[in-house]
Amino acid sequence: MAETQGKVITCRAAVAWGPKEPLVIQEICVDPPQEMEVRVKILYTSICHTDLGTWTGVNEAERAFPRILGHEAVGVVESVGEGVKDVKEGDYVIPTFNGECGECRVCKKEVSNLCERYKVDPMKRLMVNDGGTRFSTTTNKDGGSSQSQRIYHFLNTSTFTEYTVLDSACVVKIDPNAPLKQMSLLSCGVSTGVGAAWNTAKVKEGTTTAVFGLGSVGLAVAEGARARGASRIIGVDANASKFEKGKVMGVTDFINPKDLTKPVHERIRELTRGGVDYSFECTGNVDVLREAFLSTHAGWGSTVLVGIYATPRTLPLHPMELFDGRKVTGSVFGGFKPKSQLPSFAQQCMKGVVKLEPFITNELPFEKINDAFQLLRDGKSLRCLLQIAKFLKK
Ligand code: NAD
Ligand code: ZN
Ligand code: ZN
């Protein structure tokens, strides 16, 4: 049994104190897990665009500070709360922002991964058990003494910390022999993208695909489509530096909207005799979503929304446009049910069905987390892995 079991752990975390304020690495207290909760020692974490969007505070309703962001990680279970049966101390796990309780009506059906109790909720900031937080400050943001203050949770996970507490529904056990750094990618970006191609669109061999936004999520869509035998994968991005990486993930054609004098969908229709079979929107921009929708073939084209849209604007479609037979659907966490389906997905990745190494473009120590945010903001990284464990206090 861990000597820390049942005790408050004092450790370091990167705390977000306000929109666009640099994260502060500071000492915090992490309470023991309550019933059906798990306390996890985070080994590696990386930054997804969803962390960036929350940190910049674009959606005011979702703001909550101080907060520990982060949702893509891998770690080891330090201790579990009462009633937790499927993981135990010492198990290697990945946190998932979209949980699976296994008991609700949705979890019992095959068609959806949006668990009624633990599905992703950007507004959620407190634990379900008692409406409290498991994190609190020991100092103010300048390191000076102050009264202890609670720190909010984020996206069911909060991984920018040496220790975190999650609902057990949001923890998936992985093979201890798996390459841990790469397993962290399954916590969000790669599962989201590959799953959007496999589970939501169900991309078939010999079909054509357009991917808008070639960050980790969009490139994972491309990698998923490549693995399913798509014959043509058109990558669209305003940052030309993403094109080199795209080739590795099976992207066959590139379009930089800045190079065109016509809308992107017109160019895609020219290239594909009327439009692609599937398009994926992975930028979070509603105008791009419209281009993605119009770039599919009338009659059967299917568009999958993956990006997160912080804007209050609604879907940029006229209802009559749906009479052309094009479909639109959204995809959360790639449609994967985390506990039931990620372990076998991880196995497939380890067998090389999906290549994971190219997604880790940078590695930095935890202390450099603000530099890692900047790399993603500047479009210079796919995933920058931050090593956390080596800072652990014995
Ligand atoms: P990223 O920042 O790494 O990549 C976004 C890419 O889009 C960049 O390469 C950027 O150059 C490109 N882009 C932005 N605006 C563009 C435009 N107008 N035209 C063309 N290209 C443009 O982000 P990411 O981590 O890959 O995440 C992508 C999106 O997916 C984000 O909106 C993120 O919040 C969302 N997301 C959704 C889920 C889900 O479950 N649905 C999960 C994870 C991330
Ligand atoms: Zn994410
Ligand atoms: Zn459920």
UniProtKB/TrEMBL annotation:
Which Pfam families does the annotation name? ADH_N, ADH_zinc_N
Provide the GO MF annotations for this entry. alcohol dehydrogenase (NAD+) activity; S-(hydroxymethyl)glutathione dehydrogenase [NAD(P)+] activity; zinc ion binding
Keyword annotations for this protein, in alphabetical order, are: Metal-binding, NAD, Oxidoreductase, Zinc
The Alcohol dehydrogenase-like N-terminal domain sits at 35-174
> What Gene3D superfamilies does this protein map onto?
Medium-chain alcohol dehydrogenases, catalytic domain, NAD(P)-binding Rossmann-like Domain
EC id: 1.1.1.1
In terms of CDD domains, this protein maps to: alcohol_DH_plants
The Alcohol dehydrogenase-like C-terminal domain covers 217-339
Task: Name the Gene Ontology biological process terms.
Answer: formaldehyde catabolic process
Catalyses which reaction?
a secondary alcohol + NAD(+) = a ketone + NADH + H(+); a primary alcohol + NAD(+) = an aldehyde + NADH + H(+)
Please, which domain of life does this record's source organism belong to? Answer: Eukaryota
User: Which Gene Ontology CC terms are recorded?
Assistant: cytosol
Q: Does the keyword Cell wall biogenesis/degradation apply?
A: no
What are its cofactors?
Zn(2+)
PANTHER family for this protein = ALCOHOL DEHYDROGENASE (PTHR43880), ALCOHOL DEHYDROGENASE-LIKE 3 (PTHR43880:SF39)
Subunit structure, interactors included = Homodimer.
Give the family this protein belongs to, as stated in its UniProt record. Answer: Belongs to the zinc-containing alcohol dehydrogenase family. Class-III subfamily.
Question: What name goes with this protein?
Answer: alcohol dehydrogenase
Q: Which organism is it from?
A: Brassica cretica
